[in-house]
Amino acid sequence: MTTTGVRLGDLVADLTGTDDGRPPVVLLHGLTFDRAMWAPVVEALGGRRAVAVDLPGHGDSPPRASYAPAEVADVLHEAVTAAGLKAPVLVGHSIGAVLATAYAARHPARAVLNIDQPLLAGPFADLLRSVEPVLRGPGYLSVWTTLSDGMGTEELSPSQRALLRSTPRQDLLLGYWKEVLETSPEELRRQRTDELTTLREQGTGYHHVSRAPLPPAYVRWLRSLLPSAGTTVLPGSGHFPQLARPASLVEILSGWG
């Protein structure tokens, strides 16, 4: 079954597959993109129940006054509930992985698959703060261009790149990056630590996929909080393994039912 462009609460999504006893999958794209990027994963899921959501302010979903992760997580939960899903696996790409982690710390979830998104902002936060005046001005697109140039889209085929529909509006960049721009690194670390601690206490699965090996210090931090967390490196796919290596992601998902 495939139903496209369904309104679920405040969000718009595509519903695919059927209930087959396995936990349903909720697919969350990255900043400025939309649900179209999940087509290869949906195909690789082979009929497993899945919902690909347009995040607030993206695609066909309306904007919000606030894009704080906890608030967006609650909006996502309303959509998940409207779709009739219980305790899904959250698959989040880039900032979608931050939202997936926040969701799982606040609402029932079987597991989180994090696609290429370190939970500690680190150097990225330093970079954003250094260019904040530009980001808030008329030349804000130069910041996005610099970042997107490093996403490795040249490693994708033309048909794969065609699924990357990006709309880098200033309100989205400032809204979704507000947490990083205005919260101290220490507080951000505490927030992510609290979320992962909650996941451990709940027995929620976690797996981090990256395009290159994660820094050892980051892996130590992650596993100090979630000893069972898995990590997988998928080279040759840039920032978008869901496009270049969908079968590898689905194989990871199979470990959660």
From TrEMBL:
Q: Which UniProt keywords apply?
A: Hydrolase
UniProt key word S-adenosyl-L-methionine: no
List each copy of the AB hydrolase-1 domain by range: 25-251
A Pfam match is Abhydrolase_6
**Is Metal-binding included in the keywords of this UniProt record?**
no
Q: Which InterPro entries match?
A: AB_hydrolase_1 (IPR000073), AB_hydrolase_fold (IPR029058), AB_hydrolase_sf (IPR050266), Epox_hydrolase-like (IPR000639)
Could you give a GO molecular-function term held by this entry? hydrolase activity
Gene3D superfamilies per UniProt: alpha/beta hydrolase (3.40.50.1820)
Which stretches are transmembrane?
Answer: none
Q: Which PANTHER family match?
A: MONOACYLGLYCEROL LIPASE
Q: What is this protein called?
A: Alpha/beta hydrolase
Gene source species: Microlunatus spumicola
